[in-house]
Each structure stands twice: as structure tokens, then as C-alpha cells.
Amino acid sequence: MPVRRPSRPLSDPVNTTLVTHKTLVLPSLLSCDFARIAEDVARVELAGADGLHVDVMDGHFVPNLTIGPPVVAAVARVAEVPLDVHLMIDEPLRYAPDYLKAGAHWLSFHAEAPEVQGDLVRAVALLREAGTRQLGIALKPGTPADVLNEVLEDLDFVLVMSVEPGFGGQSFMPAVLPKLGQLRARGFRGRLEMDGGLAPSTVAVAGAAGCDMIVAGSAIFGALDMVTAIADLRSLAHGARQ
Length: 242
Description:
single chain; alpha/beta; TIM Barrel; 8-stranded parallel β-sheet; about 30% helix
């Protein structure tokens, strides 16, 4: 069994009794205009995005197929903010190094992926060795938080899916919210990310549950005023956490 990495500081300072991360808003590029992706990247960055969420789907783990490392590398060349690459694929260990080389800053893979099921400790160790800067594990709505018990101390963030992964535009599933509190109760002090159906009408309950990393697609790219849309999502989520 691989030796666990030594504990190290998180990307943000945290209070000894209360997690106080700044709330981040990451527009999901799945909702952008792929014919004008560089323009849309510039637009959301000017509007205040803290990062860009990139959904990678292989057509096997989820019934959809999206972008590969060359497109991520192209986005990284024009982006001024970090890329949050979410691997919804069967073989994250096989392909993660390619996405890291392409420019992923945050990288998450699914606990349910066939390649890593039953040995998340090994998967986390290998991705650390591969040079992942901010490492996370994603959970489908039906996957309990306790599957991460053995690796929580080695993660920078956990991505709690609030829709079934694979398609944009789905409705938010409030039944997943208790997972965030369960992760904090287990001593997790990294970031809690949520993705799926987050909009002004749902983001406050996500923030109140502890979410500090907001992924939103249509709520941002479909807004008439992106600046206001991003600011509102951040304010509603962060205010609910106070």
C-alpha cells in the first residue's frame, strides 16, 4: 500500500474551529458557445469568475462525450484563471496525466469510476505523484460520503454532484445537501464543491450546507448580465454560510 503523503496546508488559511474559505464561482464551460470558446472565457473572466469548470466525459462512465486534452490545453493558453477539470470517465488514472499537462489546476475524478473502485488510497497517491496541484474526488448523488473516509485527509476538495453527471441543464437535487455536513463532521477542512442545477434559487441552500465552490453553467452563460449573475451567486452562497 502506498505511503500517505504528509499533511500540508490547504490553498486558503482556515480557522481552527470553523472552515472559512472564500466562496469561489466557477462557470461551467459545458454551457459556453464552443464556436467562440476563447471569447466566452474572456467574458466570464471579466465578469469575475474565480476559475473555469471543465467537464470531461468519455461516453462510457456517462452517456455523453465532451472534450479531450488538446481542447483543455487550448483553453489554458487563453485563460487567466485556473482550470477545474472534472473527469467523468472510466479510467481517470490512465488519462489524468494528460489533463494535468494540458493545464488542469483543480482535478477531480469519480469515486465510482471502475478503474479506482475499491482502492481510492492508491488512486489518490498516484495522482499526487503525477503532480496534481489541487486534488478532489467527485460523488454521484446516490453515493454516500463515507466512501471517502480513508482518503479525506489527503484531498483538497470534494465535489458533491447535485444532479446525475453527464448532461447540463438538470434540476438541483436537494437530497444531496446532508453530505456536505457529513464531510465536515468527519473532520474535512478542504473545499466543498457542488455542481448541478445551481442558480440564484438554489445556491443559498448549497451555501448554508457548507458549499464554498460553486459550479454554474446556464445560470451564468444564459444571463443577460454575467457580472451580476456571478456576483449574486457568490453573495447568496457566501451569505448563507455566515
